[in-house]
Amino acid sequence: MQTIANTVPHHQTLSRPLAGRFARALGLGIATLVPAALWAVLISAVASWIGSPLAYQTVVITAIAIAVFLGLVCAPLILRLNH
Known about the structure:
Blueprint: H1 4-7, H2 10-49, H3 56-78
Helix pairs in contact: 2-3
């Protein structure tokens, strides 16, 4: 008797876990980098608006700190195994 496992070509069974990992890594990147960039731009705009513009280095360090924090919080949620 032929089962579903025998009908799927071998190369397709190997690519699915890699595609899932890539999608999760991409999701983690988006979940950390987009909000970090948004908040850094917002903080910079507010600082300029109140008359105290921030240095470029300060904005970059702030964005990196936000991205690292979000990465530490989001990674366990996004990259967890489905066991």
